[in-house]
Every structure is written in structure tokens, then in C-alpha cells.
Amino acid sequence: MSSSLENELKQLIIDSLALEDLSVADIDSQEALFNGGFELDSIDALELGLAIRKKYNIRIDAETDDVEKIFASVAKLAEFIESKQD
Fold it and tell me: pTM for this one?
């Protein structure tokens, strides 16, 4: 897996969710984004989903995609994006 994609995603999270007090180095790729990790909420998930759609032209469909698994961590999000880019 591409650590550069993970770093891009970390920066996207920081920028799209206005987390100015964090840096890319502060975010562990394996840490949970929801439920105990960064404690992001459903609004954050929507914001992040829109940012991902804009940047990578990938739509995450809450009806068909396993959103909980996709947004489990930066690493899982990167895996999903890579799988859609092939």
C-alpha cells in the first residue's frame, strides 16, 4: 500500500475537517477514525466523503459500500481508494 496515498488522505482529513491543530505525523494510519479514535461523527464522514469524491473522483455509496469498514482507518480508506483506481 502506498504510504504517500495515506499521507495525502491524512492531509485531506486535516483540510476538509478543519483540524488545523493536527499534522500528518499526528495521525496513525491504523487508528480508528470513528468509535474511539479521532471520534469523527457522521457529519465529518459526509464532509470527508465529499472531499474524496472531489479529489479522487470516487463515490462512496452508503447504500452499497461497507462504509464502516471503508472509514475504519486511514489505511482502510487508502485500500478502498486504491481498489477503485485499478
Answer: 0.89
